[in-house]
Amino acid sequence: MTYQVNEIFSSLQGEGPAIGMPATFVRLSGCNLRCSYCDTRHESGRPLELDEILDLAAPGPGRVVITGGEPMLAGGGLVDLAGALAKAGKIVDIETNGTIAPPAGLASLVGNYVISPKLSNSGVPPEERLLAPGLPPGPLKFAVDSVDDLEEAAEVAARHPGREVFIMPLGTEPLAAVRKMAALRGPVQERGWRLLPRLHVLLGVR
Ligand code: SF4
């Protein structure tokens, strides 16, 4: 199968449960949403065969993050990709906006299944950002602009009980991100959630 791949690169995971871990990112092209703050140029890409992706990921870290765009748009091809990477000895994490149900057979191949529900701060209409039913276990990772966004995040989390909640500051400017985190610290702590940076933003790396 051919995949439309936006980029493949190795860095550290800047977000979510594997924050700080070395990882290779396989960013698939295309997304079903249009978030106002999107900082990935996910529309562009080049066609790559499965074996070419494996070859590019092989020398990198033992963790591979399949992201996008929205990786669920690859459908059953995502199962083949995750399965081949797992067979090659990689830990496979998935980052998704959660609006598309995963193809059958994917969940058992994945280490961290990280869902990033979009809030109204994304500018995406509510009906387009509803989480799909039957998502595998995994945390909800919210990008928030201010304390005002937390109530909406709480409403989403309440509809999907039993999932850990991560809060991270929106933005690509390090100092502003730290200031937002300082303002969020108390309210996030009170709710028993985890406050995390976007480490790559703070460090100025990809
Ligand atoms: S879901 Fe992610 S990749 Fe898609 S537009 Fe929103 S921020 Fe960008």
- The CATH superfamily turns out to be Aldolase class I
Number of strand segments: 9
User: In percent, how helical is the residue content?
Assistant: 25-40%
Apparent shape: globular
What does this structure look like?
This protein is an alpha/beta fold. The chain has one domain (2-203): TIM Barrel. The chain has helices spanning 50-57, 76-87, 150-159, 174-190, 199-203, and strands spanning 2-12, 22-28, 46-49, 63-67, 91-96, 113-115, 140-144, 165-169, 194-195. The chain has a six-stranded mixed sheet. Helix 2 links the parallel strand 4 (63-67) and strand 5. The longest helix has 17 residues, at 174-190. It is globular. The model has no long low-confidence stretch (mean pLDDT 97). It binds iron/sulfur cluster. Iron/sulfur cluster binds next to loops.
Summarize the structure.
The chain is built from five helices and nine strands.
Keyphrases for this structure?
alpha/beta, 23% strand, binds iron/sulfur cluster, TIM Barrel, 206 residues, three-stranded parallel β-sheet, 5 helices
Question: What is the secondary structure topology, with strand pairs?
Answer:
Layout: E1 2-12, E2 22-28, E3 46-49, H1 50-57, E4 63-67, H2 76-87, E5 91-96, E6 113-115, E7 140-144, H3 150-159, E8 165-169, H4 174-190, E9 194-195, H5 199-203
Parallel strand pairs: 2-4, 4-5, 5-6, 7-8, 8-9
Antiparallel strand pairs: 1-2, 1-3
